[in-house]
Write a structure and sequence with these properties.
Elements lengths: L1 H18 L5 H17 L4 H14 L11 H17 L14 E7 L5 H14 L4 E6 L6 H12 L3 E3 L2 E5 L5 H7 L14 H14 L4 E6 L7 H14 L3 E7 L5 H12 L2 E7 L8 H10 L3 E5 L7 E3 L2 H8 L5 H11 L5 H10 L4 H13 L3 H5 L5 H5 L5 H16 L3 H5 L8 H11 L3 H19 L16
Parallel strand pairs: 1-5, 1-6, 2-3, 2-5, 6-7, 7-8
Antiparallel strand pairs: 3-4, 8-9
The structure holds guanosine-5'-diphosphate (GDP).
């Protein structure tokens, strides 16, 4: 995804600033200009970017900073905070409570991924113990109901909508049940097409069924379609949602602000979900949608499948964007895949700041186990932008394996040393020969090790922050 590029550009700008011997006005301006350019290229609204730049300059007054102040850190912190501010409207969205009926209405443009996202949202909560149900009030788009029905049946989530007057519950054989209840032979009475009525009926039915999360999908619409907007308002009035979620396609770019605002004017949007973040979405539109609706992004859609859905947290997200790594995501993954007995040791090694080739080897092993490379690697500080550019997961995986083969030809002493100078020319040649690679491949791997060792070295004494807040670094 292009958001990875944004992250890469921003972290490069910060890196350039870090390489400068003295941080003066020019270095700061260059860095900010670079970040501004990157944000604009990622479709973030111009006004937001300009405000951010002004705010950072206000906070980082180089003249007032006494010598000895760590200017780099202060600048980095200010950039981190401003990006977080852009994505965090300051008030959390309504969160459904288990056991208490909540009604959540989904709105968004046609094709934004709204129907898909409704099911993902239901499925996510179902896995966490909620009793969700889906109501399809999209009578505008032919096939919307069938799509919802298909997804809901797969996830065993009850649903209600046009063309079917009966609730289908968690059923093993949906087809048999459809026949049993007369779907297909359904008379006209079942063919209700008033979306407001369908929505109200569905909600009523599921309230009686004691569902605690009733999700209402509405017709997709375009900003100009006044009639559909009126319909959306009426559905909202009839169902009285606790939360209205605006679903937007991550790739709509600069249009995001106006679109989101148009929806917000009609219904009280309280949260945003950005879809298709696995594709070519520049992602900057998400920041604009937050600004337009003053509502937080709560999830990201990262694929067409039901479980390709990620909780969105501002701080870890910005950490990743800045190439600082996402500790909370990383820690979750560690807990998931690193064997229990190895976890404390790894944490200990991290906090000691010593980084040996063996640790690198072990991390590569974990990385290969962890599954979708791009996802996991972007959480690791230093691993994201350079070693593992987004969109090149296959090549990255091959590279990691290549590095590991070379490390297999090393001695224990070499693997456990924190000083790669130990390896003289003849050793490097032996390692290359032993692994069937070129000397330059070994050199490249050692360079990578040095780069990572430098980053990991900064973690010495570090207490891994809770919630992935990297601003503490
Ligand atoms: P709606 O018109 O807003 O209800 O949109 P749909 O839910 O029908 O989705 C439109 C298309 O986008 C479908 O082909 C979905 O499979 C696809 N889609 C939805 N969410 C995602 C996502 O997060 N990633 C990708 N790659 N495709 C998605």
């Amino acid at each position: 995804m292009v958001l990875g590029q944004l992250g890469g550009s921003i972290s490069r700008a910060l890196q350039q600033m870090s390489n400068a011997t003295i941080i003066d006005e020019k270095v700061l301006n260059d860095c900010l200009n670079e970040i501004t350019r990157a944000l604009l290229q990622a479709d973030v609204q111009f006004k937001l970017v300009r405000d951010m730049q002004t705010n950072i300059k206000k906070i980082v007054n180089l003249d007032d900073l006494a010598a000895g102040h760590n200017k780099r850190r202060i600048i980095q912190q200010a950039i981190f905070n401003e990006l977080c501010k852009m994505l965090d409207p300051g008030k959390p969205s309504f969160t459904p409570k288990k056991g208490k009926t909540s009604i959540v209405m989904f709105v968004g443009l046609q094709g934004s991924g709204k129907t898909t996202t409704c099911t993902k949202y239901a499925y996510y909560h179902q896995k966490k113990g909620w009793k969700p149900a889906l109501v399809c009030a999209d009578t505008f788009r032919a096939g919307a109901f069938d799509q919802l029905k298909q997804n809901a049946t797969k996830a065993k989530i009850p649903f209600y909508g046009r063309g079917i007057g009966k609730l289908l519950g968690a059923c093993k054989n949906a087809r048999a049940l459809l026949l049993e209840i007369g779907y297909g032979n359904a008379g006209k009475s079942y063919m209700e097409s008033d979306p407001v009525k369908i929505a109200a009926e569905g909600v009523e039915r599921f309230k009686k069924e004691n569902c605690d999360l009733i999700i209402v999908d509405t017709s997709g619409r375009h900003k100009q379609e006044a009639a559909l907007f009126e319909e959306m308002r009426q559905v909202s009035e009839a169902t009285k949602p606790d939360l209205v979620i605006f679903v937007m396609d991550g790739s709509i770019g600069q249009a995001a602000f106006d679109q989101a605002q148009a929806f917000k004017k009609i219904v009280s949007v309280g949260a945003v979900i950005v879809t298709k973040m696995d594709g070519h979405a520049k992602g900057g539109g998400a920041l604009s949608a937050v600004a337009a609706t003053k509502s937080p992004v709560i999830f990201l859609g990262t694929g067409e499948h039901m479980d390709e859905f990620e909780v969105f947290d501002v701080k870890p997200f910005v950490s990743r964007l800045l190439g600082m790594g996402d500790w909370s995501g990383f820690m979750d993954k560690i807990h998931e895949v690193v064997p229990m007995d190895q976890q404390p040791e790894l944490m200990q090694k991290l906090s000691e700041g010593h980084f040996t080739l063996r640790i690198m080897y072990e991390q590569f092993q974990n990385i290969l186990k962890m599954g979708p490379m791009g996802q996991v690697l972007s959480m690791l500080p230093g691993f994201s932008a350079e070693l593992m550019p987004k969109g090149h997961e296959k090549e990255s995986q091959a590279k990691v394996k290549r590095y590991m083969t070379m490390m297999d030809s090393m001695t224990n002493e070499e693997l456990d040393s924190t000083n790669p100078k130990l390896m003289n020319e003849s050793r490097i040649m032996r390692i290359a020969r032993g692994s069937g690679r070129q000397v330059r491949d070994v050199m490249e791997m050692l360079e990578e090790y040095k780069r990572l060792a430098k980053i990991w070295g900064k973690m010495k004494g570090l207490k891994i922050p809770k919630g992935g807040d990297m601003s503490a670094l």
